[in-house]
Backbone:
């Protein structure tokens, strides 16, 4: 039993220092002691921060989310993602993704991306290896009825850096509907971010990753026991946070009419190139509408006193301060 500063009590499913394969994904109040939350995150590679976002914020985002997703033609959207050989895609066949929700609702979505306990957790995990953290992806995601489960994978596969691996990124999911197994709640293998195949990749295997390098396959898509998989259940108002080396994938939506909706955030070390070019996605005329904290997180900032600057080290935040 752990006691918070506010005398709030909560029970951990697993009280040991070793992840329980196939166990429950821990749900911890956002007001819980930080060191306990960090311990669980480092142990399991994932944690659900309960009561991190007000339901009013979630409701406001859902309105924008629904309006934006209604603009996407499903048949065209899905057809373009199909693999010509297999008819499948790791992105899903009945899953919609769009990237502009931040510009449509910067105040509300910005509250998700800059939630204080979330950033405290991300910074503690990543800034050992950089002086800053960047947001490299913001996505709206719908998993529609009939979608099959996504193959388990590791998000840090974006960066095929050989040798000993260090923490490179953290991902978040904010439910806009309760995450439950039937609607396609994410699946994950607790502790898989610490497996040997996640900690070291032979340089030869990285070189052969596009032609089937076995070491790279073991890292990105290893053979796993289905019983090792945990379902990431999470209520409205929570934020799911997981290490980029954790094996995970969207679940199957087995319902007939319930769409699983969420906002995905991706964070990385300040010296890495992100999945989406944030400065092109959010140029100055758009980024001026964001909070100062969010502006820095999308790259209007400098890493290590030099990287990412303009005019020989000038902070790019100056682009947002001109009239």
Residues:
């Amino acid at each position: 039993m752990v006691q918070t500063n506010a005398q709030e009590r909560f029970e951990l499913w697993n009280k040991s220092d070793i992840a329980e394969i196939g166990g429950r994904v821990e749900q911890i109040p956002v007001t819980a002691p930080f060191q306990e939350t960090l311990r669980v995150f480092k142990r399991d590679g994932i944690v659900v921060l309960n009561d991190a976002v007000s339901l009013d914020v979630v409701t406001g985002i859902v309105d924008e989310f629904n309006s934006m997703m209604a603009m996407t033609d499903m048949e065209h959207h899905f057809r373009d993602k199909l693999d010509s050989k297999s008819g499948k895609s790791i992105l899903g066949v009945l899953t919609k993704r769009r990237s502009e929700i931040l510009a449509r609702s910067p105040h509300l979505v910005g509250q998700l991306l800059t939630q204080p306990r979330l950033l405290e957790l991300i910074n503690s995990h990543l800034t050992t290896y950089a002086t800053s953290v960047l947001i490299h992806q913001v996505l709206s995601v719908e998993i529609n009825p009939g979608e099959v489960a996504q193959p388990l994978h590791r998000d840090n596969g974006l960066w095929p850096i050989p040798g000993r691996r260090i923490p490179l990124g953290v991902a978040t999911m904010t439910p806009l509907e309760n995450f439950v197994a039937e609607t396609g709640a994410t699946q994950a293998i607790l502790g898989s971010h610490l497996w040997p195949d996640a900690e070291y990749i032979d340089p030869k295997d990285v070189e052969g990753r596009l032609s089937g390098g076995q070491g790279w396959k073991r890292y990105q898509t290893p053979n796993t026991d289905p019983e090792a998989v945990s379902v990431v259940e999470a209520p409205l108002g929570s934020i799911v946070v997981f290490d980029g080396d954790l094996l995970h994938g969207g679940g199957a939506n087995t319902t007939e009419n319930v769409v699983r909706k969420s906002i995905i955030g991706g964070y990385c070390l300040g010296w890495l190139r992100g999945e989406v070019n944030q400065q092109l996605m959010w140029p100055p005329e758009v980024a001026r509408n964001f909070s100062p904290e969010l502006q820095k997180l999308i790259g209007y900032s400098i890493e290590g006193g030099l990287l990412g600057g303009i005019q020989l080290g000038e902070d790019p935040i100056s682009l947002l301060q001109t009239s």
Observations:
- The first strand starts at residue 2 and ends at 3.
